[in-house]
Amino acid sequence: MITLECIRERDVTDAIACGRWPDRCDEELRRHVSNCSICRDVALVAQTIQEGHAAAWYEARVPSAGLVWWRAEMRARQEAVRKAAKPIKIAEAVAGASAVGIAAALLSRVDVSMLTAMFVERALPLSLAVGMIAILIIAPVAFFFVLSDD
Questions:
Q1: Residues 23/33, Cβ–Cβ less than 8 Å
Q2: Where are the alpha helices (DSSP H) in the chain?
Q3: pLDDT digit string (tens) for 74-116?
Q4: DSSP 22
Q5: Do 42 and 13 touch, CB atoms closer than 8 A?
Q6: Which of 45, 59, 139, 142 is the most exposed place for a label (fewest CB within 10 A)?
Q7: pLDDT by residue (tens digit) across 8-56?
Q8: Half-sphere exposure of 118 toward its Cβ, with a 13 Å CA cutoff?
Q9: Which residues contact 149 (CB under 8 A, 6 or more apart)?
Q10: Is the pTM of this model over 0.85?
Q11: How many CB atoms lie within 10 A of CB 62?
């Protein structure tokens, strides 16, 4: 029967975690690890993990307290601006909806045949016609950007 555990695994991991492996631990534990394949594997894996942890700890770059404070202040200011902008966005949305409603109401009162006759009879300058078409195309795009969150 193949054993998957050893009663000395905990001793090996403790010795490695405390930094006693292999020089400052007792001879009996070193002999056991050299004879037990399970503990040898545990020692190899635990030692590799411990070395990686020590290397990461040594190479970690902790920012200065002033920099951390400055970033926290900037984040708090940005959050305050976001909170202050919410009512403004609501007001912009109401104004945009009102403008669209007023434009729709005015257009519903205008007779299309009267507009066609006015364009044809008075020969509205091309630039004014292009300007009106541009406004009809640009206005929805402008409303989209005004009312969007980003």
A1: no
A2: 9-17, 27-35, 37-59, 65-109, 112-122, 126-147
A3: 999 999 988 888 888 778 878 878 887 777 777 666 666 666 6
A4: T
A5: yes
A6: 59
A7: 888 888 888 888 877 788 888 888 888 888 888 888 888 888 888 888 8
A8: 8
A9: 89
A10: no
A11: 7
